[in-house]
Specification:
Length: about 500
């Protein structure tokens, strides 16, 4: 039996009596330091690739026997997965420091690639973070100084990273999904570095890493994992064959433009049909998606998790009556059908004999009223002249709280003094405000430069912008950058 199987001897490591059980396919290797029980594979080489995966697994579990505590400690506000994955990194690091690195793959390369691709396609950000972190260990023993930049990743991490980079380079998936994956990689590397680096140094690695450090970092990692447990929507993973990045609103998706959209000098044609031109709903959605992805890429290295402020909704008195100046909703027009033949004289021309009331366009417009955005009562009037049935709200905040105010509805608006008094400040409640917009009547328009910020520390974190992106895409919310754009595009969007 001993000739066919390779038994580890944790007794040599700890000086205590242990019981070793054979691990069977499909089970997970474990080391129980409380009861001195170890379950590991006992074979000598892989029947598929010939690599001695099991030797690496046994070495790792012996590391647990020597350095892991008997219990994980109190898990208040801490996910078990966070403790376990950081402890995996710690044990592999200590093995490396003691010249016993995990120098071979612990599973076949094909299995690693398959698992990586599966997570890229359908795994949550949290699962990708955990999978990559569990593979992060060093294997080179050439460096004597233990400088951080002088060593290389082990084989498993290299395979996973190469699989991810291949997907990124080939643009196999949507830009949004690739941004999520890049973020997961940043977080995995960030927490590995925090655990093994010496103090706050970015250049040298610690002589020893305590389990207490694992516990402290696990609390931080838990917050991130909790935020990104959701499985991705397949529509956000797949790259659409006809998806084209649109940098300029005045070009359709078949044309190329070397200029930024703000500087392009080609004029928009006046013959554009609703919903099909460069300023159509689809192209505005494409622009919003591109802006969001650019912002997400900029912020993805943030390891902190932001939170929104508390939002209060206000419905002030709409003291300015605009009914006499709103014409679109009161006009009638001749049509080919109806019950009231008002325009008999048109029979010999266009046969539009019947009197029909104009469609009253509306929807809901949410305006970011922070310091970077500017608008006034005249702007509201001009919008309502095009969209008489529109509801307009604005939001902003300061420190830990924010407010959403209904400033126009049913042909009335607040006074200019009210707008002047309550405009300005910070964002703080972009997410809650968008959630409110998602419950309102379509078309839903969000007027913002998309520089969203939450409350307190981590106010500009990746998760906040990611949440805004998700709310917009799930609820068909269109972003326009300025109030001037609202006046230019809102009616067209409502006519789709």
């Amino acid at each position: 039996m001993y000739k066919d199987k390779a038994y580890p001897y944790p007794e040599i490591v700890t000086g205590e009596q242990w019981t070793v059980h054979e691990l069977f396919p499909g089970d997970t290797p474990t080391t129980n330091n409380m009861d001195n029980q170890m379950t590991v594979p006992l074979d000598r080489e892989c029947e598929y690739c010939g690599i001695n995966h099991s030797r690496m697994i046994r070495r790792h579990e012996l590391g647990h026997a020597k350095w892991s505590p008997k219990t994980k400690g109190k898990l208040k506000d801490t996910r078990v997965e966070a403790i376990e994955v950081l402890e995996e990194i710690r044990i592999n690091y200590l093995l490396w420091r003691n010249k016993l690195p995990i120098s071979e793959l612990s599973m076949c390369e094909a299995v690693i690639v398959h698992k990586a691709k599966e997570l890229i396609e359908s795994g949550s950000i949290s699962n990708i973070i955990l999978f990559l972190m569990a593979s992060l260990w060093k294997c080179s023993l050439e460096s004597k100084s233990f400088g951080y930049n002088s060593i290389e990743w082990g084989g498993e991490a290299t395979i996973i990273i190469n699989t991810i980079n291949e997907a990124i380079d080939n643009k196999t998936y949507s830009d949004y999904r690739l941004t999520e994956i890049k973020y997961a990689m940043d977080i995995a590397f960030n927490f590995h570095d925090k655990l093994v680096q010496k103090g706050n140094s970015n250049y040298y690695m610690a002589d020893k890493v305590s389990f207490k450090k694992v516990q402290n970092l696990a609390k931080q990692l838990t917050i991130i994992l909790n935020q990104f447990m959701e499985i991705p929507n397949p529509d956000e993973v797949e790259r659409k064959p006809d998806t084209v990045d649109v940098n300029c609103l005045t070009h359709n998706s078949q044309e190329e433009c070397d200029e930024d959209g703000d500087y392009c000098d080609i004029e928009l044609t006046s013959t554009e049909e609703p919903g099909v031109g460069p300023n159509s709903n689809s192209n505005l959605e494409e622009r919003m998606r591109k802006t969001m992805i650019d912002e997400l890429n900029y912020r993805r290295s943030h390891s902190t998790i932001g939170r929104w402020g508390e939002m209060e909704i206000h419905e002030p008195t709409l003291s300015v009556n605009l009914q006499s100046r709103l014409q679109n909703g009161r006009d009638y027009r001749p049509m080919e059908y109806g019950t009231n033949p008002k325009y008999i004289h048109r029979y010999c021309t266009d046969k539009k004999l019947f009197k029909q009331k104009n469609r009253v366009y509306g929807g809901t417009i949410l305006i970011d009223a922070s310091g970077s955005m500017h608008f006034n009562g005249q702007d509201i009037l001009e919008i309502m002249q095009m969209l008489p049935a529109v509801t307009i709200a604005m939001y902003n905040g300061s420190h830990l709280t924010g407010d959403l105010r209904i400033i126009a509805r049913n042909g009335k608006r607040v006074s200019q003094d009210y707008l002047d008094t309550y405009s300005g400040g910070g964002n703080v409640v972009d997410g809650p405000a968008l959630n409110w917009l998602a419950t309102q009547k379509p078309r839903r328009i969000w007027v913002s430069d998309m520089h969203v910020f939450g409350a307190g520390r981590g106010h500009d974190s990746y998760n906040l912008l990611s949440e805004c992106y998700s709310i917009c895409t799930k609820n068909k919310i269109i972003n326009l950058k300025t109030v001037e754009e609202v006046k230019e595009h809102s009616l067209k969007l409502n006519m789709v």
